[in-house]
Design goal:
This protein is α/β, with parallel strands linked by helices. It contains 16 helices and 11 strands. It has a domain of 247 residues: Alpha-Beta Complex (Amidase signature (AS) enzymes), CATH 3.90.1300. β10 and β11 form a beta hairpin. Bound molecules: glutamine. It comes from Acetobacter orientalis.
Length: 495
């Protein structure tokens, strides 16, 4: 079962020559052939010949003893990272024909570490969404099904839904994601995998298509916490091309997993006990608290009083930044163009035809809150509240080392649910947005199944640039939970 391995196992198997990088690549391409028509996890699959040529080069490095940390490991890349010579769409019609002439910093580093890219994964258009239903290339199907219900199609979460579905279903050993308000963590929880949003500034944003620049952060989506550490090591680090990228050294993240967490203080924020939180999620959270207590942690009640303003301020700041970032798609320099008699006419026709409904609505919201008469009332106010949210975290981390919360307020929901009312959809981000606003690292770990047989995740939030403690605690939670379930559709993949 080459498609069910962890990165760490696959790396060891390749090094021991138990199988070749070509075998591993072929198993993944076969699984993609079989399952992608159903899941729609990839927008673009790298041509077989290119993947196999790269796999042969990886095999040569193993033979020569020069294999790098991710040598020959099949990875999916969210279609928001520019990949040189490989179409990059952001799941938008406006970039349907865009083939970047350059490689994003994060993907360049993954290639330098030896990763084998098998394809570009589907997402919500320009990463705006929580269900992967706004893609111009069709919705992604969650490989998980409700117990005894093979009819209801579930969403994989979003916006990195294609990456989450691909990793869960065996169409990649790991994938990149991006997280602006929860887009790595929520789909990871919905698909029963691990997702890590690093500290803002840990990974370079250069060459990643921008949504909301003060929030966007790339991170790994993997099957285990140790794999997330391994992959983050390959992705992170200073980049002079991104002025917000930190120059702190990149620690050996994978080594943080397995370290004793005895004596660590784990904060439980009162405000996350939201009214209406499902009893099953509450119970899972209690279970998580008990596991960490058993591992020797001290459990401390804390308060993050401005949590209640998180969503409202996020949905001002993110659209404001997106309205500015997406102004560049005017049909002149790249992407699709719709012709018209005047220059303004070209802009209007191109943007009206190229952007989907959710993207247009966010551009309108963002333009509104930035407009002269409303800037102080909305945007400036939201920025001030953001500072208060960040301060809540900084103060909490004077008392505790990490925070433990649920990742999402529900398990994966059905395609068609939560669709009529955008606010209902935005509520999905209630537990993930505050860490994004504060810029702190946060990890989602799958810890169990609900009564319908769907995965649930818990979130560990840490101090700025302290991914190591987050990974240590995540590793302990993973070990206690022993989550070893795979979705129905993964079993079908064979190989
Ligand atoms: N669901 C949130 C949004 O739609 C978060 C998306 C993200 O993190 N990219 O903005």
């Amino acid at each position: 079962m080459l498609t069910k391995l962890t990165l760490t196992e696959a790396r060891a198997g390749l090094a021991a020559r138990k199988f070749s990088a070509r075998d591993l690549a072929k198993a993944h391409l076969d699984a993609i052939d079989r399952l992608n028509p159903k899941l729609n996890a990839y927008i673009t699959v790298v041509p077989e010949q290119d993947v196999l040529t790269a796999a042969d080069a990886a095999d040569a490095r193993y033979a020569a003893g020069t294999a790098r940390p991710m040598e020959g490991l099949p990875v999916g890349v969210k279609d928001l990272f520019c990949t040189k010579g490989i179409k990059t769409t952001a799941a938008s019609k406006i970039l349907a024909n865009f083939i970047p002439p350059y490689e994003s910093t994060v993907t360049a580093r993954l290639l330098d570490a030896g990763s084998l890219f098998v394809g570009k994964t589907n997402l919500d258009e320009f990463a705006m969404g929580s269900a992967n239903i706004t893609s111009a290339y069709g919705a992604v199907l969650n490989p998980w099904q409700r117990k005894g219900d093979e009819v209801t199609a579930l969403v994989p979460g979003g916006s990195s839904g294609g990456s989450a579905a691909a990793v869960a279903a065996g169409l990649a050993l790991a994938a990149t994601g991006t997280d602006t308000g929860g887009s790595i963590r929520q789909p990871a929880a919905f698909c029963g995998i691990v997702g890590l949003k690093p500290t803002y500034g840990r990974c370079s944003r250069w060459g990643t298509i921008a949504y909301a620049s003060s929030l966007d952060q790339a991170g790994p989506m993997t099957r285990t916490v140790a794999d997330a550490g391994l992959m983050l090591e390959a992705m992170a680090g200073f980049d002079e091309k991104d002025s917000t990228c930190s120059n702190r050294p990149v620690p050996a993240f994978a080594q943080a997993v397995g370290k004793s967490i005895k004596g660590l203080r784990v904060g439980i924020p009162a405000e996350y006990r939201a009214p209406g939180l499902s009893p099953e999620i509450s119970a899972m959270w209690e279970q998580g608290i008990a596991w960490l207590r058993d591992a020797g942690c001290e459990i401390v009640d804390v308060s993050l009083p401005h949590t209640k303003y998180g969503l409202a301020t996020y949905y001002i700041i993110a659209p404001a930044e997106c309205s500015s970032n997406l102004a560049r798609y005017d049909g002149i320099r790249f992407g699709e163009r719709k012709d018209a008699a005047t220059l303004d006419g070209i802009y209007e026709a191109t943007r009206a035809a190229g952007f989907g409904e959710e993207v247009r609505s966010r551009i309108l919201m963002g333009t509104y809150v930035l407009s002269a008469g409303y800037y102080d009332a909305y945007y400036l106010k939201a920025q001030k509240v953001r500072t208060l949210i960040k301060r809540d975290f900084v103060e909490a981390f004077e008392k505790v080392d990490v925070l433990l919360t649920p990742t999402a307020p529900s398990a994966a929901f059905a395609q068609g649910e939560n669709m009529a009312d955008p606010v209902q959809m935005y509520l999905n981000d209630i537990f993930t947005v505050p860490a994004s606003m504060a810029g702190v690292p946060a990890l989602s770990v799958p810890v169990g199944l609900d009564s319908k047989g769907l995965p649930l995740g818990l979130q560990i939030i840490g101090r700025h640039f302290d991914e190591e403690t987050v990974l240590s605690v995540g590793g302990a939670l993973e070990a206690a939970a022993g989550f070893a379930h795979t979705p129905t559709l993964h079993a079908e993949a064979g190989a």
